[in-house]
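Predicting holo structure, guanosine-5'-monophosphate bound.
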Amino acid sequence: MQTTMNEGLLVVISGPAGSGKSTVINNIISNASEFVYSVSVTTREPREGEIHGKHYYFIDVDNYKKRIELDDFLEYEEYAGNYYGTPKSDIMNHLAEGRNVILEIEVKGAMNIKSKYPDAVLIFLLPPDYRTLEKRLRKRGSESEEKILKRLEIAKWEFEYYYKYDYLVVNNHPETAAGEILNIVKTEKLRIKRNNIFYENFYNLGDKT
Ligand code: 5GP
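Done. Tokens:
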């Protein structure tokens, strides 16, 4: 998939639980209409306030397995005992029509996307330090102590992958982090590799007088 200036960008955002991904992404989506959020499928139980079709499509394991067989996912992974997948459905249409698609996925899924779609831009979001991460995770109050410890353990493992990403954004304030991501996307769209079409059209579209 070779993108051009007019095509959207596939933007992958990963970060350990507690890095504030959802808040930062909400900030982007509500302020920049050229961005769409790809709603994933999961087999985990909904947390309080989570809405089917908005935060996730909540499905059971049988249904999940069926969708894998039907080749419905761009990528899929297991995380902390639950299954997650990125539905292919509308993503390619959004990109072709110039919308940037945000995937909020964990590191193994991100690596899969990078190998399938080298034009994707991978951003790793981090909280300022480990204590903040732990505090944010506990404040959420939606998980048992056992689950929190499991997520912290995974977070340590996920940190090891940050150098495989294209950009690192530290989430001190969600608005600032969102602004930095918007800047990354703007800059990425100016890359030469995404603008070959500009060069091809250069001599044809100018004033001929
Ligand atoms: P949570 O259960 O906290 O909503 O998500 C757990 C982890 O799964 C997070 O790191 C989140 O980014 C990741 N995740 C959410 N959807 C997907 C998906 O479709 N694919 C993959 N690989 N990871 C996902």
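Residues 73 and 87 are 4 Å apart (CA to CA).
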